[in-house]
Amino acid sequence: MRKPVLAILFLACAASVPAHADGYSDFNRGVVDSLRGEHQAAIDLFTSALASTDLPAHLRPTAYLARGEEYQELEKYESAVADFTVAIGLAPGDAQAYLERCEARADGRQFADALADCSHAVDMQPQNGLLRQFRAGVYVRMKDFDRALAEYSSLLTTRPDDGELLLGRAEVYRLSGQYDRAIQDAQAAREALPSRSPLAYSMLANIYFLQGDLKNALDSQESAVNRAYRDSQVYYVQGEIQWAAGRFGDAEDSFAKSLELEPLQPYAFLWLSISAKRQGHKVPDDVTAAFSTASVSRSAAPLVQLYLGRSGPEQALQVLAKDQGEDGQCAANLFVGEWYLIQGDAAHGKGLLQQALTVCAPDREAHRLIAIDLARLP
User: Fold this and answer.
1) Which of 26, 93, 244, 334 is a plausible cystine mate for 49, CB 3.0–4.6 Å?
2) Range picked from 35-39, 51-55, 180-184 for highest mean pLDDT
3) In the Cβ-directed half-sphere of 357, how many Cα atoms lie within 13 Å?
4) Cα distance between residue 145 and residue 250, in whole Å
């Protein structure tokens, strides 16, 4: 969420320093690798820059923040928190560092500590609405929807026509099952946001989808695609809805388009594989080759390896259930279940999907997708 802002700062700092200095050079190269998505390479370069004696003191907090973000991208949350903690020690007046640590702790499910960090950042900059929005996001992850709604409603008292705030509150209403209020806020956001913005349309599509209204979901998401035809995410969401509607060919095209715009999305690859093989199609060789050599997130890696034919279903189930908690169990049962189905093993596939239905949160798209697919099975 905040990475592009920091990346601009890194580049501005790096561009202002002598090219021959080792610390500066490693710092600058680390920024470039970060922007390319080469996270481990960026970590190595930031580590080298921090070990250098010629990296000036005023850049050291930024370098720790940068390396912490890369650790977070690799889901190494303890290392990320450690780097953000050092950054806070070097620059205790930087609210950004507390926000970074808040996110890393939330990702690591240390919600009480995350909330303390976000609240500290809010106390440092009480007029900064973005910090309060981020704290609302922590409340959501804690499933404390009442406090999340109170945060958004408080912000909306002074900015009632802020489309992003309306969407934020709509999301909380959606997650808490208050669909009518979610639709009301999303429709208000649609009027408040620029006419070319896809955000409110995607939100409406999501709400309709969870209600089981696939027609309105597809219509809304098509409006989102028309407004953001270079955005990989709108095609990904469109693919999920098309797949739920049984339009596997259209879903295959949407997931392929999403990957064309943003290669190496692991879940787009998984859904592309499922959609294609449901029709007896082969995943394009260039896509398979790209994922065969790619480094993907730890939570998705066992599933990607399964769909590439490099590991077995039991291994994926064991790794994800052990390392990823409830979210891991949901993803594991869903995608391993679908893998069995496209292999022709309906018994194992159906059993895992039924199990997934009990562990996937009812307010998530995965739950609806599973229910729809189970209803299609004999």
Assistant:
1) 26
2) 180-184
3) 14
4) 36
Task: Give the DSSP letter string of 254-304.
Answer: HHHHHHHHSTT-HHHHHHHHHHHHHTT----HHHHHHHHH----TTTHHHH
Say if CB 308 and CB 292 are below 8 A apart.
Answer: yes
CA distance 60 to 40: 19
Encoded amino acid at 71, one letter: Y
Rounded to two decimals, the pTM is 0.80
Cβ-Cβ contacts under 8 Å for 122 (sequence gap 6 or more): 128, 131, 132, 135
Q: Averaged over 60-65, what is the pLDDT?
A: 94
How far is residue 226 from each of residues 108, 196, 238, measured CA to CA in Å? 36, 9, 11
Q: Is the pLDDT of residue 106 over 50?
A: yes
Question: Count H helices, E strands: the chain?
Answer: 22, 0
Give pLDDT, residue 317. Answer: 87
pLDDT on residue 352: 96
Nearest to 154 by CA among 135, 182, 141: 135
Residue 363 pLDDT: 81
Q: What is the largest CA-CA distance in the chain?
A: 68
Distance CA 35, CA 69 (A): 12
Amino acid identity at 153: S
What lies within 8 Å, CB to CB, of 188 at 6+ separation is 166
| Residue 11 burial class via C-beta count within 10 angstroms: exposed 0-12, middle 13-18, buried 19 and up | middle
Query: What is the rounded radius of gyration, in angstroms, for the C-alpha atoms of the chain?
Result: 22
How many residues does this entry show for the chain?
Answer: 378
Cβ atoms of 283 and 276 within 8 Å: the answer is yes
pLDDT score, position 23: 84
Helical spans, DSSP H, in 52-178 = 60-73, 77-90, 95-107, 111-124, 129-141, 145-158, 163-175
AA identity, residue 120: H
